[in-house]
């Protein structure tokens, strides 16, 4: 229709045709809805029976709930006396909060178990404004006969994903439901805006260190077309880094990044990837509260000849991190040098060299790191 509202009669006819002949082509239906009908049918959802699963183990005071509350209150105030109900669902499509702006629609929704604790996952009840958003990862409006299940066809709903800005992970779904006869396409725009506000609250709820890491990553990524990796309490990779680095290479870069966090050097480093390539890392240190809490690495091909220079530097026992990661020597090292037991990580080999030299010279050495970072394993390997 011209105002953006769905043609309910056409939707009903298309739904009837699909239920009668699932293999027939679906026409006149939004792509997200048509895809949801197919998923619902494949999942074995019954269009004529209605049963919403209930869960008792929900966290109604989760981080998502806390960050959503001020947005839900504001949205409910803005829509006071409008016949809608606002629902917040978690990352598994289970309702954890509901706010009724009108008692009339609230009573009707009670009749279809649209209440906290109930799961509106698509594989349970078919197309709807919570489960379909969860499956598609996109905002969607489901009006009248766009619902797969017959019981929900009197209703309309608009849902939008709530994304964590730091990880991009779907943390929940915001939904506004009402009777189909009262549908207004502007509701979807309101829901998308409110879901974005909740996402920003999730970001603000994170620690200062995580915020600083994310802000530095965004600034570096905006100024380059190269691969960018941020490492701190979490790890962020831009699309270029995901294409450039295999999972094994990503682990090598992360290990080296954490090694850099314990050093005072910035500038450029060189790291050798698992396939033998050498990549230059330009380091931006992230500091919060006076402490280094992460690093952001810009990854690119090294200048011509730099790799050879680094190999020459690495031949001397005094070579350390300095401006570069020390690559393993090009020729076999003496048997007594333990770092020739290649771990796949240049950072690990440099740490092993440092410990070996301290043990050789009889000087004290302190290894620090998080539990599970391999301190004891490294000492055992070098001492042996």
Question: How would you describe what is shown here?
Answer:
The chain has about 375 residues and is an alpha+beta fold. Helices cover about 40% and strands about 20% of the residues. It is built from 13 helices and ten strands. The chain has helices spanning about 10-20, 30-40, 65-80, 105-110, 120-125, 130-135, 185-205, 210-220, 240-245, 245-260, 305-315, 345-360, 375-384, and strands at about 85-90, 95-100, 140-145, 155-165, 170-180, 225-230, 235, 265-270, 280-290, 290-300. It has a five-stranded antiparallel sheet, with helices on both faces. Strands 7-6-10-9-8 form a five-stranded antiparallel sheet. Helix 3 runs antiparallel to helix 7 and helix 12 (about 345-360) packs across helix 13 (about 375-384). The longest helix is centred in the middle third of the chain and has 20 residues, at about 185-205. The protein is elongated, with a radius of gyration of 28 Å. Residues about 310-335 and about 340-345 have low confidence and may be disordered.
């Amino acid at each position: 229709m011209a105002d953006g509202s769905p043609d309910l009669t056409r939707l009903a006819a298309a739904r009837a045709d699909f239920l009668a002949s699932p293999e027939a082509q679906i026409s006149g239906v939004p792509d997200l809805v048509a895809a949801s009908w197919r998923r619902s049918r494949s999942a074995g959802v019954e269009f004529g029976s209605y049963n919403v699963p209930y869960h008792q183990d929900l966290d109604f005071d989760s981080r998502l709930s806390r960050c959503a509350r001020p947005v839900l209150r504001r949205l409910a105030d803005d829509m006071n006396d409008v016949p809608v109900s606002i629902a917040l669902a978690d990352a598994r499509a289970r309702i954890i909060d509901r706010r009724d702006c009108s008692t009339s629609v609230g009573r009707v929704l009670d009749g279809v178990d649209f209440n906290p604790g109930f799961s509106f996952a698509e594989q349970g009840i078919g197309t709807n404004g919570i489960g379909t958003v969860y499956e598609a990862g996109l905002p969607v409006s489901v009006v009248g006969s766009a619902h797969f299940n017959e019981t929900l066809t009197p209703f309309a709903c608009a849902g939008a994903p709530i994304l964590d800005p730091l990880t991009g992970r779907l943390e929940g779904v915001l939904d506004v439901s009402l009777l189909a006869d009262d549908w207004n396409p502007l509701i979807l725009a309101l829901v998308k805006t409110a879901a974005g506000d909740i996402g920003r609250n999730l970001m603000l709820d994170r620690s200062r260190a995580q915020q600083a890491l994310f802000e530095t990553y965004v600034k570096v990524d905006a100024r380059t077309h190269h691969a960018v990796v941020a490492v701190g309490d979490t790890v962020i990779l831009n699309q270029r880094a995901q294409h450039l680095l295999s999972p094994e290479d990503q682990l090598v870069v992360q290990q080296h990044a954490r090694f850099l966090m314990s050093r005072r050097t910035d500038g450029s480093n060189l790291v050798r990837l698992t396939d033998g390539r050498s990549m230059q890392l330009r380091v931006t240190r992230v500091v919060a509260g006076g402490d280094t809490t992460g690093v952001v690495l810009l990854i690119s091909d090294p200048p011509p000849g730099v790799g050879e220079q680094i190999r020459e530097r690495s031949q001397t026992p005094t070579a350390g991190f300095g401006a570069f990661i020390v690559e393993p020597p090009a020729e076999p090292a003496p048997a007594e040098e333990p770092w020739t037991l290649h771990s796949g990580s240049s950072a690990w080999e440099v740490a092993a060299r440092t410990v070996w030299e301290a043990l050789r010279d009889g000087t004290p050495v302190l290894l620090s790191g998080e539990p599970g970072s391999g301190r004891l394993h490294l000492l055992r390997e070098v001492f042996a």
